[in-house]
Structure formats: structure tokens, C-alpha cells
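in:
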């Protein structure tokens, strides 16, 4: 487990100061999260509701949780009380459901809008134009949601040109969103395999899992 704190320290030194490191702890045990916490890491990413809630109960209250997976709407009630930022808002319906559920429990839910630019059909999110259209239409009506920026993923490929063009497209969508919402400055992109490129292309937040915690068993 020493390995985890070593990786955290190494990454912190390598990542520019203004970039937030989200340690993606999905499918890894609480002990691994505690090890990262001891090394000073506070922000963690999870992709399943039940897992996030169980881990949130086991960790100190100053642990910060980001939800990064596809949100099942029947799990929203579980997620919202424990989640600082829902990064993976990928439909207008979900956006409106989060707003009404957050309002019901008296919370302002911080969110990112997920943008889809990768080649894979399996990845979810708004197309760039759609994201801007939905944001401008819904914004005036949202009462309990704070849109803080965008989240996206590059195509899973070795082709650096393609990865770079995906990251540039996410960053361009962020600039368009900031014309509507100037404070929505978060650009969450970059994972274990491609985070240095993401930072070069303007990421303000990277989500790194396997590089810190090792391979997941799934
Ligand atoms: C799993 C996951 C990550 C982390 O991926 P690694 O390759 O393990 O760093 C980042 N973002 C999302 C949305 C994920 O699902």
C-alpha cells in the first residue's frame, strides 16, 4: 500500500499546481483510499452510487467526492447527499432531475456537463453544440444546480493527434460555455494514459485511477 502514497506524491509533483487531481478510486478498497488520504489527497472519483456512499461513510468528512460514472436516475437520491461534484451530467433530463432533487434536500449541487467528442459510441455526453444549447435553455430555470464546467474523455487510441484534437474540442466547448457562464471554468479531462496531453490542452482537473491504485479488477 506504500505504493499508493508514493504515486500520489509523485503525481502531485508532476502536475501543475492549478490543476486539481481527482484520484479515481472506483473498485478499489477503502484501505487504498485511506492510504491516499494519508498522503494528503482529498478529492476522489467514484462511478457507482452504492460504492460511493459506502466509502463516504467510511472516510473522514473532509473527503471530497466526485461522481464520474453514468448516473442511474433511481440512484440520484443516494448520491446527492454525499457527492460534492457530479461530473457526468450527460442529459437534459438528468440535469433537471438533479436540480429538483437538490432543491428538495436543500442543497446546491455542483456539476459538470459531460461533452462527447471521442470516436467511441459507447461513451456518453452531449455533443458540443447540444451542450451549449441545453445549457443556455436550462440555465435560467435551474435553482439548485451550479454548473462549474465541462468533463470529457479522449478517444481510447495511441494516435496522439487524435487525442490532442479531442482535448482541444473539449477545451473549445468550455470556452463557449464560459460565454454563457463566466464562472464555469473547470475543464476535467485526462486520465492515467493521457493526462500530460490534457494539461497541455487546458485541463484544470485530471481524473487518475490506475496510475495511483493499480489495475482494477473489472
Ligand atoms: C475510470 C475513469 C477514469 C480513470 O481512468 P484511469 O485510466 O484508471 O486513470 C477517469 N475518468 C472516468 C470517467 C473514468 O470512468
Amino acid at each position: 500500500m506504500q505504493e499508493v502514497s508514493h504515486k500520489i506524491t509523485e503525481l502531485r509533483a508532476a502536475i501543475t499546481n492549478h490543476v486539481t487531481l481527482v484520484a479515481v478510486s472506483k473498485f478499489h478498497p477503502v484501505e487504498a483510499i485511506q492510504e491516499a488520504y494519508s498522503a494528503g489527497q482529498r478529492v476522489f472519483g467514484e462511478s457507482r452510487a452504492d460504492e460511493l456512499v459506502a466509502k463516504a461513510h467510511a472516510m473522514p468528512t473532509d473527503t471530497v467526492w466526485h461522481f464520474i460514472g453514468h448516473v442511474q436516475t433511481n440512484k440520484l437520491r443516494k448520491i446527492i447527499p454525499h457527492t460534492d461534484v457530479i461530473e457526468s451530467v450527460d442529459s437534459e433530463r438528468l440535469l433537471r432531475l438533479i436540480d429538483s432533487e437538490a432543491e428538495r434536500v436543500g442543497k446546491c449541487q455542483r456539476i459538470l456537463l459531460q461533452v462527447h467528442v471521442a470516436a467511441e459510441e459507447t461513451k456518453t455526453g452531449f455533443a458540443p453544440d447540444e451542450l451549449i444549447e441545453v445549457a443556455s435553455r436550462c440555465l435560467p430555470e435551474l435553482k439548485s444546480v451550479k454548473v462549474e464546467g465541462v468533463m470529457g474523455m479522449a478517444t481510447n487510441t495511441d494516435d496522439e493527434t487524435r487525442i490532442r484534437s479531442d482535448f482541444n474540442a473539449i477545451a473549445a466547448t468550455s470556452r463557449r460555455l464560459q460565454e454563457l457562464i463566466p464562472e464555469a471554468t473547470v475543464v476535467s479531462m485526462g486520465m492515467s494514459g493521457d493526462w500530460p496531453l490534457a494539461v497541455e490542452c487546458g485541463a484544470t482537473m485530471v481524473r487518475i485511477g490506475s496510475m495511483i491504485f493499480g489495475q482494477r479488477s473489472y
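note: The pocket of pyridoxal-5'-phosphate is lined by residues 24, 26, 47, 68-69, 191-193, 207-211 (CB under 6 Å).
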